[in-house]
Amino acid sequence: xxxxxxxxxPKILDPRGNLSFFxxxxxxxxxxxxxxxxxxxxxxxxxxxxAFKESEELIIALSGSFDVxxxxxxxxxxxxxxxxxxxxxxxxxxxxxxxxxxxxSLALIVSSISFDExxxxxxxxDFKKYSNEIK
Length: 135
Ligand code: TYD
Prior knowledge:
This protein is mainly β. The protein has 1 helix and 12 strands. It has one helix at 124-133, and strands at 5-8, 11-12, 19-20, 34-38, 47-52, 57-63, 66-71, 76-81, 86-90, 95-99, 106-111, 120-121. The strands form 3 sheets. A 5-stranded antiparallel beta sheet has the order 1-9-6-11-4, with no helix packed on it. The protein has a 5-stranded antiparallel beta sheet with strand order 8-7-10-5-12. A two-stranded antiparallel ribbon has the order 2-3. The model has no long low-confidence stretch (mean pLDDT 96). The structure holds thymidine-5'-diphosphate. Residues 34, 36, 47-48, 50, 115 line the site of thymidine-5'-diphosphate. Thymidine-5'-diphosphate is lined by residues 34, 36, 47-48, 50, 115.
């Protein structure tokens, strides 16, 4: 399985304001199928406690900051995202939770598949079981 990792995007510095970008299969390791974003998160709320069977994602803090907590069934890894010029690549089959959102934070999430509820594993025990089965 590919590993979760922080990806730095190109940064075009400009006195008029900076610009960053990524493209399909370039800068990021998959073809983009869908983009969604999470915003107006009340203080203390948690999003996305689930895993995906197939979908890979790239998560970017376009504004503000939040934590992405990943669990591979054995260990937990925490990433604090707070820069608009880098993102966290999250391969499939990792339990993932987003929390500790700052005021006015904006989470942009790029996915490798169209929305499909069947791709979700929403129960942590099911995730651990399925994770062991496919190893
Ligand atoms: P969900 O992924 O469960 O959000 P979270 O895990 O952060 O709580 O999505 C919440 C709801 O939004 C769920 O009913 C499915 C719907 N949804 C879509 O219709 N399309 C999408 O692309 C996404 C991500 C969610």
